[in-house]
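Session log. Operator J.P. requested a structure for one protein chain; no other inputs attached. Running the standard single-chain path with token output.
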Amino acid sequence: MDRTAQLTALPAEPAIAYDPPPAADSPQARAARVLTDNWTGTSTVPSRRLYPHQWSWDSAFIAIGLRHVSPLRAQTELETLLAAQWADGRVPHIVFNPSVPLDAYFPSPDFWRSSTAGRAAGAPRTVQTSGIVQPPVHALAAWLVHCADPGLSRARGFLARVHPRLAAWHRYLLHRRDLGGGGLASVVHPWEQGMDNSPCWDAPLARVTPAPARSFRRADLDHGAAEDRPTDLDYGRYVRLAGDYRDRGYADGQGEFAVEDPAFNALLIASEHALARIAHELGAVGTARHTRAERLTAALVERLWDPTEGMFFCRDVRGGGLIEERGVSGLVPLLLPGLPHDIAAALVRTLTGPHFGLGDTTRLVPSYDLLGEAFDPHRYWRGPAWFNTSWLLERGLRTHGESARADALRSAFVRAADDTGFAEYVDPYSGEACGALGFGWTAALTLDLLHLPPGHGVSGTGTDTFDRSDKGGDRA
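Structure written below.
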């Protein structure tokens, strides 16, 4: 079945007044075309050539943008991902498309061997996945998708179907992944945090013996310049960590790498607030979720905040202590409305100061310290600006009353995304496109920012940072 037939086979959406159709030559139309081109019939690939499967946090961000084009497709995006959830609650970071050749992407399904190596953890038998996870943006995405068309959502039972899966996902992270004992979730592989090649991982990765280069073939170098991608040495360490995790049956708590990351946990907190909203919509009380989110915010501050440096740092659970590398992950907690005022103000100063330069020397938020020894404006997560983290920080600035800065970042985001053909990431100084073009979350989050007028307000509770201006959203 070709993609056009798959699209037309979807159930018709109800007649409802969405935004007026964009002009054919508008940024909205161009962004929507990217999502159409990347649509497979049940989900959206990040990039047709470089990333030909479904990625977990990509799909969450893509659904957030898709809701403005097709709430039905946005719901289907999340439902497809959650259908591949493991029995222990984990949502895998890749759901593999069986029609894609094995050599199109590495690590491929035959590396992960999810249905056999993951049997004890409850991996699905009918679909192949990876065995690691990615940041938990999914409950937040589900709530926003619901808000785009509550009538359609209720008619399809969307929230009723995804709620138990999202609750199980959070239980897995809060119980199986509290490897440091302080209440925060740990990642057990750099790919789980999503910022794969960040210098924040260099110290804990140095303890890992890399897999021999001859034991794997990197498909990513067929589509991207080697100088922009992780080194062979780092990739060998990634492969070793993933292979060891697989060989332990994907059991948590035994590996060499365990890190508490501020962005991963901030997104878990935001999604806890969203789960409270979802529970309320389904007729339950969400108070416990909000309370848990507040407790997690306090743990985040206690374990990862450095008042001297004015930002959050990762904590190396195995090596002990904070990893004093300034990555964009340490700024992402700005999106949380429950942060103490002095911490939010310090994060804004760090974001706009010499280490990240937003509004002064950089167009979008760099992924790493401009003054750091490891800074590289083009190498994957070691300096380039990514659109999803800039979107999160635009939300954070707006949450904490920095509307002018948020408007400036929003404008720079939309301009850079459209000018570069919706690039995967960009040089933070020049805005030069890097990585894949026609990238899914870049297009989707552009649609989301174009949907909201500059200067729109937000309140300071729950998920109102994200949903106050959405049409049709019920207020808990």
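Operator note: The first strand starts at residue 54 and ends at 55.
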